[in-house]
Amino acid sequence: MKKLFMLIVCTALILPGFAPAEQTEANKKTTARMDEVVVTATKTKETRKDVPNSIILIDEIDIQESPALNLGELLSNEPGIDWRTYGDYGGASGFIQIRGMSDNGTQVFVNGISYNSPSLGRADVNTIQINNIERIEVVKGAGSLLYGTGAMGGTINIITKRPKHDEMSLKVNAGIGNNDTFRIGAEQGMYITDSIGYYLAANRFETDGFRDNSELVHNDFSMKLVYDKGDVLDISLYGDFSDREYGVPGIKPPGGTQPFYNNGVMIYNADSSDLLDEGEDENKHLVIQIKSKPVDWLELGFKTDYADMENYLYNRWYSMFSSTTPGSKSWTENKVHGTEGTINITPFEGAGLLLGFEYKDFDWKTKGISLDANGQNVAGTESLNEAGIITKGSFAEVQYRPFKSVKLLAGVRHEDHSEFGYEDLPRYGVVLNPLENTTFKLSHGKHFNAPTPNDLFWPNLGDGTRGNPDLEPEVGWHSDATIEQSVMNNKLFFTLTYFQWDLDKKIIWSPDSNGDWSPENTRTYEAKGCEVGTKIGPFSNMTFALNYTYTDAVEENRDYTVQQYPWPPFVPADFQYTWVKRRATNTSREQFKGSLTYWAEFGLTATATARYVGDRIWYRTESTGYPNVHTVEYTMPSYWTVDLKAEQRISDSWVISLKGTNLLDKGFETYLSTFSNDSAGSNVTAGYPGAGRSVFLGATYEY
Q1: If pLDDT is split at 50, 70 and 90, which confidence band does 403 have?
Q2: Does residue 69 contact residue 216 with C-beta atoms inside 8 Å?
Q3: I want to staple 368 with a disulfide (CB 3.0 to 4.6 A). Which of 66, 330, 411, 510 is the partner?
Q4: Domains and CATH numbers, the chain
Q5: How many other CB atoms are found less than 10 A from the CB of residue 378?
Q6: 3-class SS shares of the chain: helix, strand, coil, % to 5
Q7: What pTM was estimated for this model as a whole?
Q8: How confident is the model over 59-113, as pLDDT tens digits?
Q9: Which helix (H) or strand (E) segment is 226 a member of?
């Protein structure tokens, strides 16, 4: 509380001489429009109704009204989107799954640079702060033609704020919440000449979290420099830096679990299965983009980017059931250099040709050392592994509108990968516009996901895991059909989508014949379902939104139910597994989201959001007595959460806000895993608990 009070006092003393910001007018609050501009879907500016994909667009006003504290919360339960996080601790990672696809099937970009970890193939969206975001474009469906590996379920492009001409913007915000949560942020941007401008943003976030060993300290800084000569030439330089230190409490043991000590040090208790584990992330990104439209029929684009992602993990465990080393330290570093160029040619009205190339150089390095039962380094166990991957992609896409109400799209990408060879990735699309505010969309494309450096090269650090250099990429097809309708002067927007996708050679980690966990290409993974969304308003100072998603995802995997299975490392070389198609792991069949926003003339804005997530399945292999092994199915029950944000403008420059998430304090689990209860001498299934009730009070000064 002292930190917040001092910040408000200092800001009030320093800033009263600045001119006030204009209050957002109620008539600026509109629903989705058919003529909204999208860039991510085609790498060129297109209106929403001309894009064959199903799209979600979120602007600055949507972000400001949302109770969300991070990007994952903001996107959660939008049509086709599932936000998954590993529990309720401060540094918990969070990932986006689109249409039941694994989280490595979503590519996340910030200003065009990928935030997906090359080591894991997925992006931790919980690390991305939302106060500096101007716009978010989510394009669902196969995106591998334009974005290469991983863009199977869809792409998310986050566009940060730019300076505005003839305006100097400044925003300072701070807040406090339960669990000793504290947040402070600042933004400032302006043009210093007619053509040159900048936008700066910085944040600090601290929390003790809900559980033991769940603290987090987060710092980030970003900068965007622009040279703007309109369509003739636009150059932007964006860079950011973030640093996070956090505890890793793991799953929550079952009720009644007694604290366990090793040599006088507590290893776990009833609150957290890992009291000593901790981690640190340090990430840097830099991207330069050049865009030019020298003549009406030609657009040129060039981008070069660099990412440096470093992760440190300290793991301690002790188990009488395991012969593995009781701990390790590991350092992983990914450096990625990328270059991309595009040419968009419009020879005549209604036709377009996009040509592009992309080059990426991945440098991967990991270092590890084993720990003894006391947490000390074990001499002679240090390992250092390095590897490099180079990918080259070239793509072409043609668009043609033979009639005013019909648009056709077709394209192909050729991807060369230094480890497994090449993939050719076609995509097709049809857009029908029978009426000005009615659109029918069809999209069909091939997608792929390359194995990550972790999958290929991960060394055995004494914990029974190792990579597999013989992996092949995951490949498949993604199809969808969408109807979008806008009526009543854009006060009612409706969208309905049916989707279907399949995937062959899915990569999963499982025990091999040596008893080590390593990745392998399994058989198939597929899903079908529908998405329904509507936005209504503004009516009587209110807007209303409803979203519903149904996903039927099926995976093909090993089944041990009827096997007399000698557990590794005693598996015979000729052992034949039984394969079975079953409901996909950790995928909810039904999701729902409803939100209501109200604003008053005296400066009050309030948004209530309700989310529903259906039950999810998890499978565990258990033994009832050697060598009898069988598969057990566990269910994570469905749950509801309710969030609320109230924001009151008390002057032209000052805004006070109050956010509450999971106000009903509903308990739920996000993932399941196995817990070794050494005190009781048993292995049991336990979960990562979802976040409980959270309240956050904030103050913002706007110039």
Answers
A1: very high
A2: no
A3: 330
A4: 2-693 (2.40.170.20)
A5: 15
A6: 5, 60, 35
A7: 0.90
A8: 998 998 888 888 888 999 899 999 988 876 677 888 999 999 988 999 999 999 9
A9: strand 216-228
